[in-house]
Amino acid sequence: MNEKALQRLEYGKIKEALAEYAVSYLGKRQIAELLPITAMSVVRAKLDETAEAKSLLQHGASVPIPSLEGMENILELLGTGYVFSEKDFMHMNQFLTSCAQLMRYMAAKSGAAPHISSYAASMYTMDALKSEIERCIRHGQIADSASKELMKVRKRLAVFEERLKSKLDSLMSRHRSILQEHVLSTRNGRYVLPVKKEHRKLVKGTVLDESASGQTVYIEPAEVMTIQFELTGLKAEEAREELKVLSDLTALAESCDQQLLTNVETVGTYDFIFAKAKYALAIGGSNVELSDQGIIDLREAKHPLLNRPMVPLNFVIGRRYKSLIITGPNTGGKTLTLKTIGLLTVMAQSGLLVPVREGSLLSVFNHLAVDIGDGQSIEHALSTFSAHIRNVNEMLQFADRSTLILIDEMASGTDPGEGVGLSVAILEELHRRGSTVVATTHFTEIKNFADMTPGFENARMEFDADRLQPLYRLRIGEAGQSYAFLIALKLGLPAGLIERSREITARGLPESLPQGTQAAGPGPEPDEASTADKDDPQEETTPVPAPLPPSEKEPEDAAQPVPEEAPRSFQLGDCVYIAYLGRTGIVFETEDARGNVGVMIQNQKFKINQKRLKLHIENKELYPDNYDFDIVFETKENRKKRKLMGRKHAPGVTIETQSEE
């Protein structure tokens, strides 16, 4: 999978946390090398293994996973001519003992954990090697019984050591008065008497050393020289016999090298599996269903790296729609939602249980593309927009039906108009390729595109408008808003300025300020109320009344059913509220046979089912009686043509209208 995508999702931090639960070098190595798997059957097997291990731990089982202490060094030196030490064989014996315990344990758990118990069935007891080590090595030392020759040598050594001890005791007693201290010392492995310097000639023997002060000389008495010489020879013979024993044991271990390797690797695998199980318990991980159709159905999902309580995420994609556009206020949880979806996907494909409720489903993807964060680099001075385009270009290299694409803040970093157009084109191309796409945006045009296009769906992050706080809950099927006007109003921006902002947002920017009006006040549009009239003096110059701004109530409040004394259909000029877009619009075409109403939103025309509309302000409160709605809904050019065609035959003149989808 794409390494950059994994980095952006902080996959490495998951592996760091997981490694804390491994106890062996091989378990930690497997975690370091861990990557998402793209074969669905393998992913299924790995998840089931982790689930079995988790179940064993939950039921209080103490799994006897052997220690691999010393085994890495042993495997590296096998067959190199190196002779293993007593310590090496102690590690080897402990390992074989633990392997036998693990094999018995897993055999007993074959019913409860059939997948992971099968690994132990491939392990070896190596009874002959274990028995020989125990016969030859005891308490970290080579036993006398390791060989007949060694036993003979050690018996002779015992005799001579006893004889030497008796001689030394006699000499210590005889020369007590001339000794510097009544303690035997050794020099170069030979026993000596610490004699006062002035009495050195009273003891027959060889001076082997002298104290730093020069007051004491260390003499090897002549009476024990022969005995000590014999002892030196016997100890050399003992060392040769011990080396022979260790060499024979090493040869036996080398004959079992493949069996040792299999056991070590199996133990490493068990360490890895149970590390995943322990991590699953720590994060509340559960097993999931799998799909290869791009379907994701997360229930009460949480981000595993979040160090604070998180509102559980419920998320669905891939059945009715494969592209989801998420909107909502800043810091409302949009980016966290993307990261949660992506991270849980790659975790599951790594055989890790994820923090979701049982019954959740994730898809196995071959490719993953993530554009989260501005991706700017100081060194290369890349702009936010350039970084986005670079990331999108990489996506397009491999995007297909088995690709999950996560894009944060579409159309950001450049001119909104061009950015929106480019974003829509990118979304169309990714949808054409069949990719599963989750994107966030603030732009209404992208939300409208998602609402009108099959295979796309809107979603929003919920927001508490009263407390100006995000609720971090995802609601699929509704478009959100940034709440900029409401937040600005509650933070003290003048209400008149907010009203003018709403008007500009609803109707678009004016070409110029009307004469005789204040800069912040509403007025007739120049192209409709003045410019057009100059071309045709006979045209009435009735000014266009600006629609009243939406009320300061929350969208939720505005969307509440308004008590009506009698059913009323929507009329031309009615101001309606579209809850799922969080926008108001003006009715330009009444309801057709299918129940669709023509609504103009920000100078764009849409067909929206009447069930999704709520009356906000009646037309009679916005426009005078018999008002010519063509001034609002028709272009200046088409109005001129219609006037001309109304007065006389105009060959070659045609009126073009924009189609609404």
TrEMBL record:
Q: Which UniProt keywords apply?
A: ATP-binding, DNA-binding, Nucleotide-binding
Q: Where is this region: Disordered?
A: 507-566
**Biological process (GO), any one:** negative regulation of DNA recombination
What PROSITE patterns does the database record attribute to this sequence? DNA_MISMATCH_REPAIR_2 (PS00486)
**Classification via Pfam families:** MutS_V
A single MF term (Gene Ontology):
mismatched DNA binding
What highest taxon heads this organism's lineage? Bacteria
Question: Where does the DNA mismatch repair proteins mutS family domain lie?
Answer: 403-419
Listed name of the protein: DNA mismatch repair protein MutS
Q: What organism is listed for this UniProt entry?
A: Paenibacillus tyrfis
Q: What phylogenetic lineage does the species belong to?
A: Bacteria, Bacillati, Bacillota, Bacilli, Bacillales
